[in-house]
User: Fold these one by one.
Assistant:
Number 1:
Amino acid sequence: MSANPYANLLKNIEVNGEQFRFYDLTQLNDPRYDELPFSIRVLLESAVRSCDGFHISKADIEKILDWKVQQFNKVEVPFRPSRVLLQDLTGVAAVVDFAAMRDAFKRLGGDPNIINPLCPADLVIDHSVQVDFSRVAGSLKKNEDLEFERNRERFEFLKWGANSLQNTTIVPPGSGICHQVNLEYLARMVFNEDGLLYPDSLVGLDSHTTMINGLGIVGWGVGGIEAEAVMLGQPICMVLPEVIGYKLTGKMPSFATSTDVVLTITKHLRQIGVVGKFVEFFGPGVAELSIADRATIANMCPEYGATIAFFPPDDTAINYLEQTGRDSYVTKYTEAYLKEVTLFRKDYQNSKEDPHYTQVVELDLSTITPSLSGPKRPQDRVPVSEMKTDFKQCLANKVGFKGFGISTENLEKSVPFIFEGKEYVLKHGSVVISAITSCTNTSNPSVMLGAGILAKKAVEKGLSVPPYLKTSMSPGSGVVTYYLQESGVTPYLQQLGFDVVGYGCMTCIGNSGPLPLEVVDAIEKGDLVAVGVLSGNRNFEGRVHPNTRANYLASPLLVVAYALAGTVSIDFEVEPIGTDMNGQNVFLRDIWPSRDEILEVQQRCVIPAMFKEVYSRIKTGNERWNGLKANTDLLYNFDPNSTYIKNPPYFDGMTVELPPIAPITNARVLLYLGDSVTTDHISPAGSIARTSPAAKYLTERGIAPAQFNSYGSRRGNDAIMTRGTFANIRLVNKFMSKPGSMTVHIPSGQELSIYDAAQLYKQENTPLIILTGKDYGCGSSRDWAAKGPYLLGVRAIIAESYERIHRSNLIGMGIMPLQFVEGQSADSLGLTGRETFTIDIPTNIVPSQRTLVHADGKNFEAIIRFDTEVELEYFKNGGILQYMLRQLLKKNQK
């Protein structure tokens, strides 16, 4: 590694009498820079600033500069984000790995004080709270008490991380949703590192990390291994993306909300096809959108499949920093720097500022109409005016994304039931969950206040919500509570059942809690298609609640409206939402607030002091958090009896010296798989089945089935996660006659669970491989999709092709990805998977080298898919964590 060859681009800038330095990309004097989309300029700046000749080379900078041509060539470029955002379910495994690294570093003779994230890491505990209580006094306290009771062990461990790990901020439970806390508090927009200015950018362990794109910050969700690599100062590799320019024109109608805009955009971009691409917004319509509106649109990015949904920094972004209580000292150098390097959009009316885009699509905001999405996917937008008709069609349609297969004779089925001494009736379309929840909308004062004003008007008309309907509100931060109270709408929301039940990611991720037993019985008795309406971003079947077969995404205003109606089978244009105190019909239009009406309240009630007040308490925590007795030692004291937190065996037997490269000899095939095996097939997820190896492990340790919890909650225990690897009931293994988590132990012919078979092979000292087809590891990036196979004893995978990030993750765990040469497959080579495999690995291995695989006489060539020298170094070290330990040991010994 050498000195940065772009040091000559360092330039000084003076702001308020203080000198700062920055890499001035305009001094590249390359006309291609001026044509780059703003998001690509951020990638370029990171590469220029981090260029070291090894991880990032001058050739990489040339690829990014030549984006206009290279975007179509699927070239890979490195990106070193400025920070990492974690949430508690996914982030706990990263903290476990750092604790384990410290233990290993000390054993190898190093100072464990050195083991810390090398770039800032922010972890927000927001995914553990559930709606166990709602519409009763003290719901918030009761839910938070249960949250701590269920998750105490994890929370104590995370508090150790907060106390012990440097360069790490851990935001306590009860503070809000990570993406809203990120937007309102954690976001830097521009970093100031000892006077060196550069753009804020990040990767996050949650797919909706893209919400920060609304503030002009490049960031997206990744898997745990990529996140840990960034935390350890390493760049991640990415395909240089196409950038779709999304032009916004016109103004939103007075009755439309930002939720309506995002549902329209989601459907539009899904139809266009933007998977793996950047989307960048421009045009005069952008100036009409607040940062909260933009963040709502960017939050839904995973639902339309893009990598990011970027709004370049502009005056609105700078104003937002001020409105949310950021220091004026920071906002001044932020604005000055961004303008100096042309990362700032000055005028949306001036088309001369428009960069070059791969493709341009357009939306006229004046065409937006009130909408929902559902009943099973975020991209299936339904105009409110068509909702009744669309839902009835869905009932009758054959089972699918827009169908439930209800027979004609059962379409009008109704089930009476008694609740709190009064009779009610449930039908298809009855709303049983109505939740103002999730990061998508709770960061947006316009829709939150809109819901409050609508609630006020409804109560004043004498309207009410059926008492059996589970209503809840889980704001993304405490700031929401402040401005709802300040505006005077809180008592009206509470009267309709929308009291605050927690500050976190709740109903949207399935933490919706139980429904009343009377309601569940009625739904099951009539086999009814009951409905959840939520202001979230995901409504996949089975996600929100097992008893709501239909789930619709909607603005907080429509969440309240459908709760009042009690059904989605209503045409608001011609049917009243209820009757007033005089028995007169009340229509939704009678209580719907205008955009101007909401804006007036917002300007009056959302003030910087609220943000300063709420976030001043972030680091001091709360009574429950402060009462946790957390280990304060430098090394974490792993409890051998814990079923939540365990010291993983990644570093067992690790030496300071590099182990010699050796062939994989006499390996057996653990699994023989086909095409499109996803990370969901591989990675443990969901509830722990009572007959699974993980259940057996827990039972042996005295854990009752009711306390099994989920794989997600136990991500910090490798013994449970390894047992859940490949445990998907839909996994198709060619050794078996039906899908599931079983395989064959080849030497004995026994049919065993995949985990038990792997353990038997381990006892026999037999290395394992996996045979598979095309696109192995497609789907969301999941760290345990690589960690699990490694801990099962898998040394190599031979596939026809790989999903890019998963291939990188396998290397990060020391697993060799091999690829059949073009035109060959396990089938074409006549492999049965029952052969004994030996894989030659040259000692002088180079990237993309071919090697010979011996399989009981069926010898064939395969490509070793180490595509860069960096990946090769990771593999030689046994994985990225081992590589970093050895690098840090070298530095420590100098």
Note: The two ends are 17 Å apart (CA to CA).
Number 2:
Amino acid sequence: MRSDPKGSRNSGPVPAGKPAGAGPLASSGSAGGGKQGPEAAADLVRARKQLLDGGGTRNRRLDAHALRQALVDLHEFWLTTKAAELGIRSDSGFAVVAVGGLARREMLPYSDLDLILLHDDVDPKRVSEVADQLWYPLWDAHIKLDHSVRTVPQALQVAGSDLTAALGMLEARHIVGDEDLSNLLIGGVRREWRTGIRTRFDELVAQTRSRWSRSGEIAHRAEPDLKNGRGGLRDVQLLDALAIAQLTDAMPGLGPEVPGGGLEQSHRRLLDVRTELHRVAGRARDQLRAQDADEIGAALRIGDRFDLARTLSDSARTVSYSVDVGLRTAAAAIPRRGFSRLRRVPVRRPLDEGVVEHGGEVVLARDARPKKDPGLILRVAAASAQTEMPMSATTLNRLSEGAPELREPWPKEALNDLLVLLDTGKSAAAVIEALDRTGLWGRLLPEWGAIRDLPPRDAVHTWTVDRHLVETVAYASGFTTRVARPDILVLAALLHDIGKGRGGDHSVVGADLAVQIGNRLGLWPSDVALLSSIVRYHLLLPETATRRDLEDPLTVQTVVDALDGDTMLLELLHALAEADSLATGPGVWGDWKSSLIGELVRRCRLVMAGEPLPQPDPIDPDHIARAANGGVYVELQPEGGQHTYIVTVIAPDEPGLLSDAAGVLAMNSLRVLSASVGSHAGSAINTFVVSPKFGTPPAAGLIRQELIRAIAGDLDLIALLDKKEKDAIAAAPVRVGDEGVPTTAFAQAPPKIIWFDATEDGEVIVELRAEDRVGLLCRLARVLELAGADVRWAKVSTLGSVVVDSFCLALRDGDSSANRERIEAGILGVVPMIRPPKPAEEQTT
């Protein structure tokens, strides 16, 4: 007999289990007489067998739900009949209380029968007599029984000392006998649970996470544990326990209108699958074996084992999201005592336009208008991923109910917010999962529905197809500085398998879908073509490198011809191949595969033309004419998007102007999305495309006044930017490590510096690929100025969270390796670096 989660290790006069060799106890004094021993439960056994064999009628098989209800009715009927024979009535001082599946009305074919015999301090001899005559017929009939005999105070004591027992008794339901006695137990357990949850909540969370660690995630297990796995039936019972404690709703965050039908539908599906698992296995079983999946899928009219796996993944992920919301909501609602009651109410800290942090969650600002702001969904998501704070369930519900569709093509700021989300690496996974479970991700990417919860056909894959794409994005975010187009890399990572689940070659189907999606996102036609080509050829490098002879020139020429000699496409495919392999599963990417693909790429580069040099943007003739007037001129105009503007700065071309202009913009919370820096006839002509973090930008006149102050040396911009950044980082400590409040940001991908020889004598071009930070362009320009480099022109791009900045430099002391090393050291001193790993002793704690 299994250990009893409800504390039913039989205290009192009843033995812990049936003694070996003991026969039924016949008692002439038993109330009601009747059958004894095996005969007493024979009718129950026959009826159970009849239900499992055919549902009780000829050629009719009960479905899973009807079978569970029939089993509940059957066991309740037997117990009430037997109780009447034993004299267990409303005034007898006895009550039979069900826990477990019978209490929840979820009786499975081979579930244990979990019962508590309550008594009101009845004579021990009488208690023993009644208990023996109730338990022994069930034992002798080989019905699995989990039992206990207790008074109400004894049961409450067990619930108060054993968390597992308390969780079991929270489900208790009166079956027969003295109902007042049952109500004393049920009400007492629930009352003590509510009053004691503050001290038991941490233990409850720890127990839950330990169970998840042992049993894994149902959504991503080949043979999942339907009961104990993450997203399983135990988690639904956990939500009920939190609801009884009045900390959360029993079904938080999801309604029936979301993908998968919400929590109630997911619970029903898990129960149905577990019911059929019992019926197919012929015994109690929690783990779904691969060999049983086809039969269970057919019995439930779901389909084959892959269809069943998809259904389970959908249901389990819905339950997992609901539990995350429930635990978070419960933690915030835990009653406070002592000095903790005097804590100040959490403040609302602004994160983005219409987005704030409140109580450790990302929520909407009070003046946010979801029905009039279609880009709000992505701003909320980007803020959540950047700060690693979860989005409030209430916020997601409001967005789901009221946020309109983004117009097509998307505004630039919406695309940028999507890129920021994807650039956050592992943080993006939880955000996308929350958006997907609430129907918002499918609104942004309708094509996602075909791959949602789609199980892999190859056993080497760890994840469902949709989660694999998200994992690929997470790995690709660490490679963004390897490539010239980090934005296209993360988008390709997100879409490379989007063609699966539709029939045909998924690379070909996906390439067409990439065109459709790229046009919707508002990419330039050339970028749409590049994105489509990456999706079309994302398997070209790994398949060629591992299956073809690299010494054969025809092998290399085949790849070059397929890619039309495009070195940028080759570079992106190389990075994607590694991210895709790492996201597939353990051991898929290793030294052997890495070296083969690297060698193939090297040989292809030798055949292809070299990479083109960065080129300056042409200068607007109107700006040239304006420069002739002299002085400091600042113009601010809408760029075309809802939150983007063009700032033009024309001033005498003097050292430090670029740093001062970029610093003033950063101090006014204007993020530089792109910039073109040039000069003409002694005047610098700098154009910045900016996006304000909040509201509208300051007037051009105010920007001009601050720029004049900065040029005059009245503003220490670097110090002001350091303080601004430190304040922002300190307000979001989760994002920056565990060692106090740091003073700098960390990056997902390491910075990369590339040098080119320019066409003019004495000029060189340095290109930086790095993650952005507050005032980065200002800091870079200051580094170049201090190194004695004159910026002849510059071309700046911010793609999501990654910058690709090119500067054409005239080096005062000539182009030497020492000068380049000095400039590189200065650049590396101001860009975000990879977070250092924790010491080994901290990783193991």
Note: Residues 179-215 form the longest helix (37 residues).
Number 3:
Amino acid sequence: MSYRNLLSATAALATVFSTPAWAQAAPEGGEQASGGLEEILVTARRRTESVQDVPVAVSALSASALQARGVHTEADLQTAIPGLIVRSGNNNNQLNYVIRGESVDAYSGSPPGVQPYINEVPFPVIASTPFYDLQNVQAVKGPQGTLFGRNSTGGAVLFQTQEPERDFGGYASIQYGNFDRLIADGALNLPISDDKVLLRLAGTLTSGGAFVRNLYDDAMLGDKNERSGRITLALNPADGISNVTMLQIGNTTGTNAPNTAFYTIPCGDPSGFNSCTYSPNNQPFFSDLLAGRIFRNYPNGFVYAGGFQSLPEFQRSQGDHVVNQNADFDHRARSEMVVNKTSLDLTDDITLKNVFGFSFSKNAINYDTDYSPYPFIQQYAPDAVLTGADLPVETSATKTYSNELQLQGKTADGRLTWLLGAFYIHAKEEYLSPLWLGAINASVAYNATTGNKSTAVFAQATYKLTDALNLTLGGRYTWEKITLVQGAQSIFGAGQRQSVEQSDPSWTATLDYHVTPDVMVYLSSRGSWRRGGFNPFNPPTPTPLTAANDPGGNFFLPERVRDVEAGVKFEGHAGDMPLRANLAVYNAWIKDIQKTAYVVIAGTASSATINVPKTRIRGFEADVSLRPADWLTLAGSATYTDAKFTRNESRLFGNPVFYGPFGDVPKFAGTISADAALPLAGDLGELNYHVDLYHQSPFYFSNLGGTIQPGTKLPDYTLVNMRLDWSNMFESGVKGSLFVKNLTDKLYYTGGSAGAQNFSVESAGFGQPRTYGVALRVDF
């Protein structure tokens, strides 16, 4: 299917998003909106309202929607939430959320352009997120900061876990599919003392899932073995007082699904040096290499003697989801998180709320940096190659404390709704990234600790100018302190310390007008920023890499964004058919956007973070839902993103660097879906069928794809997913399911890593092949 056809089918319809929001969809079996569609509730102004009544930048998936779509990973989430792109980096465990073109490059030292949250607490993404016992997931679009948490330039992804309920109950679920993939999870709700003390226990266990074959040793890679548990305690000692504490601990092992050598730079091109060196034409070196006379015991397991330049073509000739790499791919991660939310009603109209969070994550990964069986550079050197001691694996560890205090209420006879807040976060991240250099059989390491202390005050208020016209104004001011200290194993020298302080405002202004009870229009403008800092993978110097300043150092400037957004929302009927149809258009201007370029410094691969002077991102978002019959719901969504560097020249080591085309985001992405429900006779239960089709246009995984990073354009793809549920079998509370994802077994890629300057190769990460299986769930 052409994306233009899908775009034309849905271009007039979209969900309007403008003000930051927490959203929650109506629970399964909950109330329907007046139009007959399931009502979606949001708390954009810290009170529960219909999404159609508030200008919000959010798409929400309820617990029932997560089940219906079989959402268990970030990749599943991308196909379910319009406008959200989940991009992989060097492997399937290195993830990056992208909204409206805002993202974060790997090995940049930049904070995320899209900030993820769990239960209103920001957390870093250094491994995949456990998807179990969730109340909802939301994607908030556009600049954020005037209502909660950290300021961000692109948006936020919000995960809300299930909280304890008043009645005893729970669920247990198990799913098994091809690639030996097992997913089991469950929850138990325990009311300890009426409504005063409530407890909920939840956990998940997964295993299997390897889908990438390594020609080097015939191993299967990409399995994930996860163990995660969560305890949530809710205390309600008196009317108007509540306290909810959540503790979550997780441990993951398995292997990374590595990137494949997608495109190699030909010998003779400026960056084709490895294609020349590791070539059958380079004799006697190449013959000595194959005979094992250069590296001890090499080529143990070596399978291809055709040369580096022709490696991608050879791999593709061997089948889909195939790599050819001489490295270890173990992946280990563990995480701990505590969230405490306390709420106190001071009066009937004023509430004091505090949100405290602590998180710790540690991630250890192995992968082959050159994505090949040739021994010239990689993260880990096996015994068969390295003559000295083995290198440690690449690790990163983060520890974060945060606290947010809010005072919210209503005054002026309920016409003014307001919120005041203060936010503090202290984050610390440790990096250790070793590299083995095959040409000289030696190791180097990037080793540093970064710190960030951020303090902010913010306020937002909405005033009803008339019964139909509302004005919303919000502001935030943030103070940041950023530090970097080089570690004991740092290639740049241990103990060097850098520090900088930055501050800037964020703001929002919105007018919304209810033309009729069914139609609302709005106009919004926002501004926000992303702090600057230090890249731990570049030599320390205090001056940023910009068009005007080029010392070749590791300091980069803050990024600033402002946008304008307009939209219309409709919920009513088309004839007798319930219809929800919305449209939003936006334009964002960004100064000093933070992007990376991979370079060689003193013979070593490095990642330089550069401020690209000016960028413009514009587009539209559309969404439509209709119910032509009581048993059938149809939906479609489309997003179009036109991103461009309008002043694209920066400098790197005295040379101009021209950025473009804009990377990380396809111009078009869209989904069409259908849900059908068929009650069965007697006590047999109900059949529910879901099908969705997701299409994404081509995109570049490098922002230098038109200049020094050729071969970084990934093709478009279309995925078809289906699920059949037999619910409440014989009134037992048991649901059986059959599912298939990527029905046509489409080969597609989810991202990549640009390595032309360092390794003469561009690599890309595989998306999941066709997966299918059965599931069983019991609710009690």
Note: Residues 3-779 form a domain with the Maltoporin; Chain A fold (CATH 2.40.170.20).
